Amino acid sequence: MFVNRVMGGRIGLVDISAQIFTDNPLKDPTLPALSTKETQFHTRNEPKTAVRNKEETKGNQSFIAKRLEIRTATSRRAAMAFLYLLLAILMSLGGLVHGQFLPKTPSVVENGSHVSALYIMGDSSVDCGKNSLFYPFLHRNLSLLPCNGSDSTLLPHLLAQKMGLPNSPPFYRQNGSIEGLRKGVNYGSAHATIISPRSHSHQSFNQQLRQVYETFQLLLLQYREDRAQDFIKSSIFYLSFGKDDYVDLFLRNASGLMLKYSGQEFAHILVNQMVNAIRILYDANVRKIISTGVLPLGCTPRVVWEWYNSTAIRDEKGCVEEINELVLQYNTMLNERIVELNVELPDAQIIFCDVYQGMMEVITNPTVSGFSDTKNACCGLGLHGAEIGCVSAEMTCDQSSAHVWWDLYNPTQALNSLLADSAWSGYPLPGICRPITVQDLVYPSGSHLT
């Protein structure tokens, strides 16, 4: 698979330490040289042995042997000191020489977690529109500010804080340093889809996978293979796709999708693509994965506004049931396949986080969680704040924490914080992440309690 191919084709890193040791004979310039008399005595072959006193000869030879023994011992100590110094230099250079000294990440050192970094892939649920080279000035959704100011208000970044990890910076803002990649990366892009779009207005899942491969290549080239593999295995990959496949492709009947496929068939296509991507990541040594479902699109301000004059059935909460049923088909199918993958793939830890379930609990009983408005966008104009999206921060409401929805399709920071708490510990919205909580993924066997 990918990692094996990368390893097979990687540039060989020459282990130069042995060569340095053998190519640099160790000498001690501080030791005095043998005297001329001693050297001459040691090398000459005088024929006047009859007149030489044997005891004097024996004494001189003993003296020379002792000097040589001292010289040898001192040279050996100097050699060992030099070797230790050279070894220390090599260790400090790390990957520049051997590529084998991968520094521990802050999470391992500071809080004892089992996670090295967080890598994020997804759509506008993980990106505020800053992670694209060609983000359109005014997208068809008419919302330039799909977040409460920054990516730090989104669910994966709130979870990163709980893990003790820094926010994963956007892929396109990386400076090429291995240190930056080692802290985690956000490959997500607003309006990214699982299905590869025909236009270039937004990214696809496959494009983000290619960016992940580039990161893996750099890790494998920089560090020793087993170290790089361990780092990848101990990192978490967060996947959040599907919303924009329904918003931008299916519901708009892009390329005639609604005419070609039923809701169940479309969900089946999306889930198969997600499962294939998870398998690819697994073959690249990824073992810890969080995959989220799609939020209740039928309750979003934009969908409620677009279907306002239609004959579509609405539930008691004012949500469009037909749209929510489409999303439920996808979520249910993805959850079932993840259960199968956890059994099929050895050592895999794949969590399904059901944001649909969590949000519907809030929409059904908003006051329990401290919300008062479940229909209107905090930032937008028109009916439900959904006719024109959030194009200016001056359009925002006074109390965003009372709203479930931030703009046309995205929840507020307050709602994301509630989901993050529940995904992390199972409280106050139990069971939205399964089979385990995110905290259990980060701290196996309750190690955070010790």
UniProtKB/TrEMBL annotation:
Domain of life: Eukaryota
Chain spans, region Disordered: 38-58
InterPro entries: GDSL, GDSL_Est/Lipase, SGNH_hydro_sf
Transmembrane segments: 81-101
Pfam families for the chain: Lipase_GDSL (PF00657)
GO molecular function terms listed in the Swiss-Prot or TrEMBL record: hydrolase activity, acting on ester bonds
BP terms from Gene Ontology: lipid catabolic process
Keywords: Hydrolase, Lipid degradation, Lipid metabolism, Membrane, Transmembrane, Transmembrane helix
KW Nucleus (keyword) present: no
Biased composition (Basic and acidic residues): 39-58
Entry's family note: Belongs to the 'GDSL' lipolytic enzyme family.
Designated name of the protein: Uncharacterized protein
Organism field: Dovyalis caffra
